[in-house]
Design goal:
- The chain has a single domain (about 25-285), classed as 2-Layer Sandwich (Translation Initiation Factor IF3), CATH 3.30.110.70.
- It is built from six helices and ten strands; from the N terminus they run H-H-E-E-E-E-H-E-E-E-H-E-H-H-E-E.
- The chain has helices spanning about 10-20, 25-35, 105-125, 175-185, 205-215, 230-250; strands at about 40-50, 70, 80-85, 95-100, 130-140, 145-160, 170, 190-205, 255-270, 270-285.
- The strands form two sheets. It has a six-stranded antiparallel β-sheet. Strands 1-6-5-7 form a four-stranded mixed β-sheet.
- Helix 2 (about 25-35) packs parallel to helix 4 (about 175-185).
- The longest helix is centred in the middle third of the chain and has 24 residues, at about 105-125.
- The relative contact order is 0.16.
Length: about 300
Amino acid sequence: MDDVPGDLPEAAARRFSEGAFTSGLTVPDFAACLQMGLEPAGYVQGFCVMKWGSWQFYPGAGAYGGYGPSVGSTHGGYSESWQCPHGFVSAEHRVWGQNYEQPWVEEAWANGFTSAYERLIEEASALGAHGIVGLVDTSAPLGDLGVLEFRVQGTAVKVRDGPPPADGRPWTTYLAGQRLAKLIEAGYMPVSIAATVASVRVWASCITAYLTEGTNPGWTSQAVGAEIEQTARAQMAVRRIARERVRSQLGGDSLHGASMGTRERELGEGDADLECILRGNRVRRFKEFDPMPAPRPTVRLS
């Protein structure tokens, strides 16, 4: 306070005395957090860099018995097999195909994400934060190094005049500002973010390969314009697996503001890697609906 100029307003002098902070919030989100009694403590982040290459797994023989899916669990998770309907044609002909879950990819992604997330929590805990709002998480290749960078960042906040967290671990949420205010107004409190990945490999059968290329040999049983069943089943499966994985993280809580994105890496001849990332906010009811008081106007016309 000795270095604060004497001609500053009392509020400005008080801010100088409390020290500086950093924030990743927009101005409206910052104002809404203050209205709820959440004061930014600092911008926090967590990182993890993992070796990341292309996993190749060559499945063994699956179930046979005519064209169409045969469901199994050869690889410890989702698996469906397709058999060629017309038999051997040439040495390059694909008489068999399979969709299968890739748990080794899912586990590697989970390890990278969790490591970055825990480092974010450590930074926020060091600031004495009650929670972290406005989280953003990304996973992307780092240059041409063959590695994947996981990044989780957000704004640590303190509850004005609130006691420290009981277990010393702040809550987290992707929400901030008005969206967070409406959540609390509805009687729900943020617990943590929930995020997971599902990975499915498409090992194309002959029909899938031909239809993906847009060709229609005369001896096939499928016409151009027909549904590519193997690809469709893989897309549905990767989304279902992601939903099941997130549901297992919730316990008895709810998921709010979920977002789902699917990426496909084409490998040629109908083969593909599918990846679905599902994220959302784990929330818990703590009171009945209770409208927040209307904000006081800062400018009056009379």
